[in-house]
Amino acid sequence: MWHSGSISHIRNVLIVRQDYSHSSSGLGVTDNSAFKIGVYTNFNVQSNAQEWLEESKRISSIKTRNNEFFITNLWKITKVPTILHCTMSSGSELKTQWQPDSKIDASVLKISKVETSMQFDDKARDGYDGDEHECTAKNTVQDSPAKAPMSKESKDARKALATVYDKVLVVDNVKSARSVVQLLTSKYKNFIHACDTEVANIDVKQETPVSHGEVICFSIYSGNSDAEADFGNGKTCIWVDVLDGGRDVLMEFAPFFEDPSIRKVWHNYSFDSHVIENYGIKVAGFHADTMHLARLWDSSRRIDGGYSLEGLTNDHRVMGVVPKELQKIGKRSMKTIFGWKKIKKDGSAGKIISMEPVEVLQRDDREMWICYSSLDSMSTLRLYESLKSKLEKKHWTFDGCPRGSMYDFYEEYWRPFGALLVKMETAGMLVDRGYLSEIEKVAVAQRKLAADKFRKWASKYCPDAKYMNVNSDTQIRQLFFGGIENRCKPGETLPKSRTIKVPNDGSLIAEGKKTPKYRTIELFSIVEDLKTDLFTASGWPSVSGDALRSLAAFGGGKKGKEACHAIAALCEICSIDSLISNFILPLQGNHISCDEGRIHCSLNINTETGRLSARTPNLQNQPALEKDRYKIRQAFVAAPGNSLIVADYGQLELRILAHLASCKSMLDAFKAGGDFHSRTAMNMYQHIRDAVEEKKVLLEWHPQPGQEKPPVPLLKDAFGAERRKAKMLNFSIAYGKTPVGLARDWKVSVKEAKDTLKLWYRDRKEVLAWQMKQKELAQEKCEVYTLLGRSRRFPNMAHATSGQRGHIERAAINAPVQGSAADVAMCAMLEIDRNARLKELGWRLLLQVHDEVILEGPTESADLAKSIVVECMSKPFYGTNILNVELAVDAKCAQNWYAAK
DNA sequence: TTCCAAGGCGCC
DNA sequence: AAAGGGCGCCTTGGAA
User: What is the pTM of this model?
Assistant: First the structure.
């Protein structure tokens, strides 16, 4: 009876609107959503309801505009009915005919004159314009709530925005697309083209745009230095409708997008590039990403607007002299233009701003939507022009030498780097989900074991602790520190005892009633006046793992021992829990990986110092080897026949510091090679120096064949404590750690910490001087610089509190070191990317973790590729190393990330 | 129901 | 008075 596969059998379609309140009647379909709509047969309704529901869910979109329903992608339904009615719950009946199109994927079903409004639980997204999340509201609206009147701000914004309409050429068919593309690829070929897409069906907080999201429209605005492109009748901006069967129209633009000689600028290129590539179009001709330009211009815009298109284009410091027309119609957020507030019961407007999904806006508020999305590409081009001219006026100093402008820097480094990052995102990493689900079982079991242990102990002192949430810091704090006074706000104390609502695990059963969802428990302090020296920023005692482990107030003896074990169990729960929820679970999520089982995180140049950051998911914070109790890195594998190369720099930041400060002692130590921390320890302590000179210990030892152990002890064994201190200082000093902080870490007096610091600086005076210079720069020019000449800005110190001032000074010391290391890592990646031999062999970059890169390629060439990668990384500046210090690189190849470290 | 800040923790 | 730089993201619990 059912026809599978081909849709050519479809003649009629039944649309059923089902009221939630009548869910038991008629169809036997129960669901919480307000309406159900779907393709239905006219026979055997009852028994096929479930099947129908399953099928309807496969429809990618059912949309409404005015009084029409649109069902797109009907072809996705494999089992389709033959004879159909359309019935509304009111009893009215509609019949419709649908002519199947041979081009199935563009099929659209139209049913007219259905009077109802519908809402769908759709996730949608504006083309992700910026760092700040500007998500459209998810709306599961029941009962179509009344909308509050539009605010004056919105009205004005809409009025101003509407003036854009006359300038927009709406392209909604293949024919007009062809003529526009003809102009773009010939007459206007040499213009700069700003492009922007709007995308539906994606939740950017959880999903990668690689193989997710549906382009519903895009706009192109083109110009050169003195004119804008003209598409006739004063139309200067192109807006292309891709919704409801516009895929063919989009495909017409392939020659434009794919032409590497046609220069395109984007605001957040990565996102748009991926969603367009999802249609099989390989975007080329990347010319600039205005987000990166803005970041290069000023990397400290976290406050005041951030890097969103709206924030940037409305900032006169960024836009300079804004063209008049843009002053009037600056970009406003989607919420301002299209958002609305619900009317509350008391008649007043609610606070939460709701919004229709973007594809609904495109149909229902079409003219405004066209203006809105067209303005994005217009703004992007203006932003590009403004930032370009600003960067052109900013001098570029490369490792101390003048080198043109910062726009030259962009062209040489960040433009290719931006393109490379997109390539890496597209590649993604293969994840072994089977392995993850195995270790998940182990982790969950171990967590339960530890939790039971802790609960058993705690409930001896506080009975209700049996039911507490051991993952809640509030509850833990109550248990250990009830009654304690806040450190920052004298007078405020944590109550001795507190009742807390927790989910009922089922053990609480009320007589004659349903098992309640929640229960209340009484938590009180199980210990008197517990001493701690770790506090949170707001003044309450910290209950972090570190803080808990150092608690030792339960006295000695059996009780004390028990307490120690219990606290250890508690720490274990927390750490296992964070491994599960941060890594084991998200890495298995379907929403991140796509079909091929690869995970595509997004790699962003969005940090203050120029380091990369990664997200959705963050692959840069996977547990490191020693702490990786479940060997999570083993889940990152190479595809069959392939291997991974993992290569990392040794002490990159310290080497950078040595170079930047021209510190002789450090440079010598690196030149001598061997263990840098041992050498630091030797330089700090006379007695170690003596021991080394008298050959009582060895600085380092390279075992000769036949030798099993060194003839005399190694420094790191004989003077382990000193070496550890030296190592800690090596890492801390670049971060600007203070004597007080060191004293706290080491649990020694501040004086002692100061003396140790003095030892470190004793033969590294240049570092001290260099740090002073950075602080002065931060104070006087409000900027410090990296090796390649990127700057980091700081707020004016004159107006800063002493606390803020301290932070600025420490950041000023750290930023050039961290930022230069990022520069080197970037150069290394570009060097690898440029290497023709690696490409030939089939190796490609997958990920960077600050001083480490990961590549994948054919196993048979792994060793050769590894040596090339090492070469690239040790000479990352076009085959040379401009530093006064060698760049040490360690590389391995293996089948997974864990084995390759 | 949804949003937000705080606290915590993973990485380099 | 506080006192290590740079990230992303999880859970909680209270507020809207």
Answer: 0.85
